[in-house]
Amino acid sequence: MQVFTDVERLDFELSQGEVKRAFAKVGNDGECIEISASRHVITAGGIASPYLIHRLSGRKSETPKPFLGGYMDHPKGPIGRLMPTRHIDDLDYMLVSRDDIHVFALPEAELLESGIGNHSVFVWGETRRDQSLRSRICGRWLQLNINCEQFPDPANGISLDDPPEVRWRISSATRRDIDAFLDRILPRISALFGPVKRADWVAMTGASHPAGCTPLSASPLGAELHADGQLPTLANAFCVSSSGFPFAGSANPTLTVVALAERLAQTWYPG
Q1: Distance between CA atoms of residues 108 and 61, nearest Å
Q2: CATH classification at residue 53
Q3: How far is it, in rounded angstroms, from Cα 202 to Cα 185?
Q4: Residue 94 DSSP one-character state
Q5: Which residues of 199-218 are buried (b: 16+ CB within 10 A; e: fewer)?
């Protein structure tokens, strides 16, 4: 296996439905490396991967500025304040003894029944503080935050210029879905630990975890990929990237990308 980093530009030689060779311009000195392989795997992240897939597909765009929709991130932001009055020792133990992020989420069956996105409310851990929660909670509060699952939106996407540019927004439909989630989860948090003062408006930003635009599909159309990540128009070109996510989820994408890579490797080298 050959791995190239600091690649400034890639060009491809295609023949009979396969990538025959690739040419990589590497580093500031512009050295050009010829790459020949039986299989080629694109792992260029959630923005550059769709750009490379579009170039490899050889499709002619119907518009002067080609655009791939369905771009996703998982927006995050503060959604309210928890004023702990119950189970303070349990909450203190949870925050001190575990990881830095502590998540509250709805059961999977409830998500499937309601159609609500797989959002999560989280509290930053207190592992670096010197005092217990009980000793500092008097008249105080804990910030509650949300990580959102954003569904594909045709208006969110990547313009396939060189370099590609992202167009991204948080739609009113996403905000309605978040409100439906908070209507369900916040009363449960309040019942466990105490009153929650919900924010009137959730000021959200992106999490810098791009996904989508070339989703995996059992029957790929357009820019979609086969379920194993293969490009529909090329027999020996594959993509392992968050750009293949049909949905972005609300958690960091790294482990899912690793799982996709492992699954693809298992199909090539079983066992």
Answers
A1: 40
A2: 3.50.50.60
A3: 15
A4: H
A5: eeebebeebebbbbbbbbbe
Polymer length of the chain: 271
- Give the amino acid at 6: D
Q: Supply the DSSP symbol for 205.
A: B
The stretches in the chain having pLDDT less than 50 are: 127-128, 138-139
pLDDT (0 to 100) of residue 167:
92
User: Whole domain around residue 134: which residue ranges?
Assistant: 72-153+168-198
Is 79:202 a contact under the CB 8 Å cutoff? yes
Residue 240 burial (10 A CB sphere; 0-12, 13-18, 19+) = buried
Q: Does some domain include residue 163? A: no
Q: Provide the domain count of the chain.
A: 2
Supply the pLDDT for residue 143.
86
Alpha-carbon span 232 to 57, nearest angstrom: 8
The owner of tokens 């208006």 is 155
